[in-house]
Amino acid sequence: MPGYFTKDAAQSSPNDICLFTQSSINRIDLILDLASSWQGTISAALYIDKPEVLVDGKFQQVQDVLDSLSRDPQFNRSSVTISLLFGVAFTANADEVQHPYDHFYPINTLRNLALSQCRTEFVFSLDADFLPSADMYSMLTDPAYFRRLREMSDQKNSVFVVAAWEFVRSDIEYSVPVSREDLSGYCLKMEAIPFHSRIVISREKSHPERVEAWCQGNLLDYHLKITGKTQRGPQQQLTNLDCEEIQFLTNYTRWLAATDFYPVVKGSNHINRHYEPYWVARRSTLPPFDERFRGYSFNKRQHTMELQYMRFQFVVIPRAFVIHRWHRMSDSKQRLSGMVKATVGRAFQRFQHERKTLDRQRSTQAAMYLMDFFT
Hints:
By secondary structure, this protein is an alpha/beta fold. It has eleven helices and 13 strands. The protein has helices at residues 30-37, 58-71, 107-116, 136-141, 143-155, 180-188, 208-215, 252-257, 299-309, 331-334, 338-373; strands spanning 3-7, 17-24, 41-48, 79-86, 122-125, 130-132, 158-167, 192-194, 198-199, 224-225, 262-263, 278-282, 313-324. Strands 1, 2, 3, 4, 5, 6, 7, 8, 11, 12 and 13 form an eleven-stranded mixed beta sheet that branches. The protein has a two-stranded antiparallel sheet with strand order 9-10. Strand 3, helix 2 (58-71) and strand 4 form a beta-alpha-beta unit. It is globular and about 65 Å long. 35% of the residues are buried.
């Protein structure tokens, strides 16, 4: 049974959007940075993997964070709920044989727990090691802007993609929150790049004017690799769409110059297995995250595929972004090998098989319905 700690906001916007996230309890300090960047509701699910953690005063750390949120004026607009999820070690029988995978970080269970505590119409899915841009909340909750989110979601179930960036080193100095103007500066200095891309021309060997042109959305490709075969047609439309890079479809060249929403265009196969965006969406339309996935790999990809199977439209939000803070490789990623890698791989294969089967069955049922209707 999860435990809950809550700090209510002094006031909340009628167009509030709940940011839901997850983390281990050892990184609870990340919640303060999130609250510095996000002025609305935050629902965070924290994981306690074993009883030994409790002797380290972790519950007191949770209370200390909530006290900080209550005392500091900069957090007056934030409403924060922290949910605690206890690992299998708290209930496991000593004689019970368990699979090592059962002890891995239950990332999708935590996401579902955090999402369940949101009460707003729209929610924002984000991992705790990212920061929302400085003006993102005020922009999205502006009445006219919020109305557009509603209108597009009324027309068709939608996810509104937020461009993801990352700092390339741990020694880069930045203030929280990070503004769009700040991002432009980091882009020019090649200190921030699209998430999961890589620099192929070093700063020393690059031409500053060409880097600047790319950062302004005026150059298709130059110093970064975001996909293996970058091809674009008129108006920065992507033409190679069946690629394997997880952020490619966001189309960063177009985003850098965008002033309005634009659609994510997918390839010949309408289900892209590699796309992993962060997004805002209407809470009532969302499927749960698949809790078979633990640790690192496939957990968010599975959910994005599910949204595609459900025929959600993907629309990119201009100007707003999230930025990943550099950190050492996570324990879950380091342990992704051998039996664990095979286990999560099989879970992803099972999901794909189940979903393809269900999609074919629904298509067959729809075809039979039409035949009966016209005969």
